[in-house]
Design a protein that fits this description.
The complex is a heterodimer of chains A (204) and B (168). Chain A is built from 7 helices and 5 strands; from the N terminus they run H-E-E-E-H-H-H-H-H-E-H-E. Chain A has 204 residues and is an alpha/beta fold. In chain A, helix 2 crosses helix 3 and helix 2 crosses helix 6. The radius of gyration of chain A is 25 Å and the shape is elongated. By secondary structure, chain B is α/β, with parallel strands linked by helices. In chain B, strand 3 and strand 4 form a beta hairpin. Chain B has a domain of 102 residues: Nucleotidyltransferase, domain 5, CATH 3.30.420.270. Chain B has 4 helices and 6 strands. Classes of the chains: A alpha/beta (204), B alpha/beta (168). Strand 5 of chain A pairs antiparallel with strand 1 of chain B, so a sheet runs across the interface.
């Protein structure tokens, strides 16, 4: 009797094509992902169901936590111009190199007197605890007011658009601290704010 | 000389790619999830202008259609309808106030008085930023269109009522 040979097909599939697709996707996501900036002041934002993204341009973010205020304005050019205007107002001369270095600093919180030495520091030194003490907001020396005002001017010059002000407050921060910052802004007739929150699923 | 190719058969150059593909997809999933979650959301807030010289800076409110919510300590709120001092404020936990808002809106709408139902939010010194965001979010969910934030004029009788309840 002739033996019937059943041809067995192998169960091994060629994974090369799948691997190619996966690495392509991976490369795409790595490249499009924006690297998260290290934050000098970590805050736990409260959550809300609002579905409005924080704008990436024409925006200044005030981070409030532990009773301190940190400042950030979006856009490298706007940052440079803001520093220039601050220098003019407080009679401090910033060199082009310092302006360039300042333009890549994200959130910061140092008094103007320490700003020059702060710009000269390396990135990791800036993040050390105790270096950034927050921006002064006392009524005698209200630097936060000047920062916001000059950032608005700089943004209007460069982007010819109104700058929005976002407040990124720690959830457990007491309301009077937040109110103090909002009062500073309201003196400049900024009555509209964006409160930065975490996304939360909608209740039924 | 030693023979290198001991087996007669040539080994296939094929490598098993399965673990590599697994790893790739794991990383892809990770990147997809982290990029969408990390974008923060923002809440639009408008506060009343402080300029007293402006005309029309004072808004007339109908007492019977106005609900005042005072934010206090320990995630508690005190709310009352109408004019301060006329009725004792109700003390509630912040996550239960939505029912009261719905009830009060129903009553106000049924009263037949013209005008919108208004919610006045007064965050006091005892409240936290989270309380404030929560109540504004609640009003957005309940679609209360007219809402005002007032952290300047917290009346004495409001303070007193809150102190009695130990939430200020």
């Amino acid at each position: 009797m002739p033996r019937i040979k059943v041809k067995r097909t192998s169960t091994v599939t060629d994974m090369t094509a799948m691997c190619d697709v996966a690495s392509l996707l991976l490369t795409f996501f790595i490249l499009t992902a924006t690297a998260r900036q290290p934050e000098p002041l970590t805050v736990n934002t409260p959550s809300s169901t609002y579905e409005f993204k924080v704008p990436a341009e024409n925006n200044a973010i005030l981070t409030i936590g532990q009773g301190k205020v940190f400042f950030e304005v979006a856009g490298n050019k706007v940052r440079e111009r803001t520093l220039e205007l601050m220098g003019e107002q407080y009679k401090i001369d910033f060199s082009p190199l310092e302006k360039q270095r300042f333009s890549v600093i994200g959130t910061f919180g140092v008094p103007l007197a320490n700003l020059k030495s702060f710009i000269a520091m390396s990135g990791s030194d800036r993040m050390k605890p105790g270096v950034q003490t927050g921006i002064p907001t006392d009524s005698t020396d209200n630097q936060l007011n000047s920062w916001v005002l000059n950032a608005r001017k700089a943004n209007a010059e460069i982007n010819s658009q109104q700058m929005r002000v976002s407040i990124k407050g720690d959830a457990n921060e007491e309301y009077p601290v937040v109110k103090k910052i909002i009062d500073v802004l309201q003196k400049q007739k900024v009555n509209k704010f964006l409160l930065v929150t975490n996304a939360e699923a909608k209740k039924k | 000389m030693a023979e290198l190719n001991t087996g007669g058969k040539k080994a296939t150059p094929r490598v098993d790619m399965t673990p590599m593909v697994d790893l790739m997809f794991l990383l892809v999933t990770f990147f997809i999830l982290t990029t969408t979650i990390s974008t923060p959301q923002a809440m639009d807030i408008v506060k009343p202008d402080k300029d007293e010289n402006l005309k029309d800076n004072k808004l007339e409110l109908k007492a019977s259609k106005t609900m005042t919510i005072l934010l206090g300590k320990k995630d508690k709120v005190a709310w009352y309808m109408g004019v301060a001092g006329e009725s004792a404020p109700t003390i509630e936990s912040l996550d239960q106030v939505d029912k009261s808002i719905i009830d009060n809106r129903k009553k106000a709408d049924a009263s037949g008085v013209s005008g919108d139902f208004v919610v006045l939010v007064k965050p006091t010194t005892g409240s936290t930023f989270r309380n404030f965001v929560d109540i504004m979010d609640e009003l957005e969910i309940l679609k209360v269109k007219v809402r005002q934030i007032d952290d300047e004029n917290i009346l004495d009788n409001e303070k007193q009522a809150m102190k009695q309840q130990g939430i200020l």
